[in-house]
From TrEMBL, chain A:
The chain crosses the membrane at residues 12-31, 61-87, 93-110, 131-160, 189-211, 223-251, 257-277. This is Branched-chain amino acid ABC transporter permease. One of its GO terms (molecular function) is transmembrane transporter activity. InterPro entries: ABC_transp_permease (IPR001851), BCAA_transport_permease (IPR052157). Keywords: Amino-acid transport, Cell membrane, Membrane, Transmembrane, Transmembrane helix, Transport. Its main location: membrane. It comes from Paractinoplanes toevensis. Belongs to the binding-protein-dependent transport system permease family. LivHM subfamily. GO terms for cellular component: plasma membrane. It is found in: Cell membrane. It is a multi-pass membrane protein.
UniProtKB/TrEMBL annotation, chain B:
It comes from the Bacteria. GO terms for cellular component: plasma membrane. This is Branched-chain amino acid ABC transporter permease. Coiled coil: none annotated. It is a multi-pass membrane protein.
Length: 290, 339
């Protein structure tokens, strides 16, 4: 029982990286119609930035949790203004290809600058060790990651449902033409939303820094699993992205515990099943065309 | 939203083939292509020449889906790589002449494409790309984990090159090129037949207007799945020849970057133009070869930048641009004649 709970927390902690990043992917897709292939690279940049900030400025994790997403927001704005915006009116496949090219460039640049071996990262003292919860011993950091990312997801959800900005973003996601017709300047929100989505990927990277090997390649497989996550959750759906993120984390953790050879494969089997049974994803709506 | 300063991409079906109404030009092009293919190993290091032709068929196979069916597969490394492994395994364990091994690899790729295609075609557009990518990653992990069979990260070493005991073909890559070329040319001919057949016209109609194709009574999903399997088979032919030519199979052949590279070749050459795959593969391989020989590390930096630039500024691709110019010139001439 205790082992099961430990795997569950481990899975939910890993799932919170997927949930946060998938949330960013879903928001970007909702408002811009762009599937951001570079999301894994942005996650990697978040982790690398965290390690570099600790190494050069001795910036602790607490500050990185704040500073790195802000930096990534700025980077996302630059990427959107410089590259992504020119293709927004075309078939979304072009932006998928563009961000694929961007991924290759970013990964290679990090590889050239910081090498292929991982960057070191040590946990702040307060998050090391384990806690004993009614007989179940859990790593303290995994619990922290879980609680923190759930808090962020709830916060984003509150912003989306309770504020005017959230209402505009949701309107722009669901019915862009109608939102425009009602006098909402949808275009004004495109750049900040892209930056926001990139910041979420960066935040997932910060959280992953003490938990995963920090290498230039760390985002590659992550991005592909993210795609599986949003396909499972339903690409347009924000709730779906978060739920599927945690679900995939659980599948991965239990898979690694009980069938390590098939852990990675299970996720894609899950995706295939969802497509067969509910093509639009667990929380998605049917595609408008075809 | 700011107005795009870049010209809009051509509507997918608007381009008319250079040789559409000009059979003589088509034959001249085909003859020139054949001469170029035969002369290539005289000018380029023969293994590199083999890479060019194999990747050209790979790009053409991807273009059957991307350019003629409107489906961007981001997972064709699964078929390329799995055929390479199966070809290598057959050649290693049974010692059959290499064309037999390649055929086995291609058949395996088509069998693998059946379930993947069946599931993937249920989603279209951007979803199709993501789903095929995810499945290819699954195949990658299988290849990685099943190291007893595939050699895992070390790859499949020492794939023999057996050809009816003909010494020159088996040992010299120059002669091997001519032994393997007919397989790849057959693949290209098959691709040409597919896109110009009534079946191919249905694919184009699905690309241009899926609801209408469905309303006309075509089973759209079935057509897409068949196109997917055929494309995988041609990809398998190319991957098998590639494996034999190199004498080993690396895990990279299954990696997602391989899927991305071939899409780059297709887009660089020009989507929806079979010749574009040839041009794209030629440019890509010669550039990579040049960079590698000049000691430059980080080819992905160049590949990625080219990707970004082509998608931003040059969406017609090389062959697509040539074809477009030609078409514009013909229209202009025709209108002058009328005056």
């Amino acid at each position: 029982m205790s082992a099961v709970l430990q795997y569950a927390v481990q899975g939910l902690a890993a799932g919170s990286f997927y949930a946060l990043a998938a949330l960013g992917l879903a928001v970007i897709f909702g408002v811009l119609g762009v599937v951001n292939f570079a999301h894994g690279a942005f996650y990697m940049l978040g982790a690398v930035a965290t390690a570099v900030l600790l190494d050069t400025l001795d910036l602790p994790l607490w500050w990185s949790l704040l500073v790195v997403p802000v930096l990534m927001f700025g980077f996302g704005v630059v990427v959107e203004r410089l590259l992504v915006q020119w293709l927004l009116r075309l078939d979304p496949l072009y932006n998928l290809l563009l961000t694929f090219g961007l991924t290759l460039v970013l990964v290679e640049l990090v590889k050239q600058r910081y090498g292929v071996s991982g960057l070191p990262y040590r946990l702040p003292g307060g998050l090391r060790g384990r806690v004993d919860l009614a007989g179940v011993v859990l790593p303290r950091y995994q619990l922290f990651v879980l609680l923190f990312s759930v808090a962020v997801c709830v916060l984003v959800w509150l912003v989306m449902t309770r504020t005017r900005i959230g209402m505009i973003v949701r309107a722009a996601t669901e019915k862009p033409e109608l939102a425009r017709a009602l006098g909402i300047n949808v275009g004004r929100w495109v750049t900040p939303v892209f930056g926001f989505g990139v910041a979420l990927a960066g935040l997932a990277g910060v959280l992953a820094a003490p938990f995963r090997a920090i290498t230039a390649e760390m985002g590659n497989n992550f991005a592909i699993i993210l795609f599986a996550v949003v396909v499972i959750g339903g690409l347009g759906s924000i709730v779906g992205a978060v739920v599927a993120g945690f679900l995939v984390g659980l599948v991965e953790a239990f898979g690694q515990a009980y069938a390590p050879t098939f852990a990675q494969i299970l996720i894609f089997v899950l995706m295939a099943l969802v497509i067969l049974i509910r093509p639009a994803g667990l929380f998605g709506r049917q595609e408008a065309t075809a | 939203m700011t107005q795009s300063v870049i010209t809009e991409a051509p509507p997918a079906g608007a381009d008319i083939p250079v040789a559409a109404n000009n059979p003589r030009l088509r034959w001249i092009l085909l003859a020139a292509g054949l001469v170029a293919a035969l002369a290539l190993p005289w000018f380029v290091y023969p293994p590199v020449a083999m890479d060019i032709v194999a990747l050209a068929l790979f790009a053409i196979a991807v273009d059957i889906l991307l350019g003629y069916t409107g489906l961007l597969s981001f997972g064709h490394a699964a078929f390329w790589g799995s055929s390479a492994y199966v070809t290598g395994l057959i050649a290693t364990h049974y010692g059959v002449p290499f064309p037999v091994a390649v055929a086995g690899g291609a058949v395996f790729a088509m069998i693998l494409a059946l379930p993947i295609g069946y599931v993937s075609v249920r989603r279209s557009g951007i979803y199709f790309a993501m789903v095929t990518l995810a499945f290819a990653q699954m195949v990658y992990f299988i290849g990685y984990q099943w190291s007893d069979l595939t050699g895992g990260e070390n790859g499949l070493q020492g794939v023999p090159r057996s050809f009816f005991g003909l010494e020159p073909v088996e040992t010299e890559s120059f002669y091997f090129y001519y032994a393997a070329l007919p397989i790849l040319l057959f693949g290209m001919w098959a691709a040409w037949r597919i896109v110009h057949s009534p079946f191919g016209r249905v694919l184009v109609s699905i690309r241009d207007n899926t609801p209408r194709a469905r309303a006309l009574g075509y089973d759209v999903d079935k057509y897409k799945a068949v196109a997917f399997v055929l494309s995988a088979g041609l990809t398998g032919l190319a991957g098998g020849v590639f494996a034999i030519s190199h004498g080993f199979v690396a895990l990279t052949e299954l990696h997602w970057t391989t899927s991305g590279d071939v899409v780059l070749m297709t887009v660089l050459g020009g989507i929806g133009t079979l010749w574009g795959g040839v041009v794209g593969a030629f440019l890509n391989v010669t550039l990579a070869d040049y960079l590698a020989s000049s000691g430059f590390h980080g080819i992905d930096l160049i590949t990625g930048s080219v990707f970004i630039l082509v998608v931003l500024l040059f969406r017609r691709g090389v062959w697509g641009t040539v074809r477009h110019r030609w078409h514009v010139r013909r229209l202009r001439r025709a209108s002058q004649r009328r005056r």
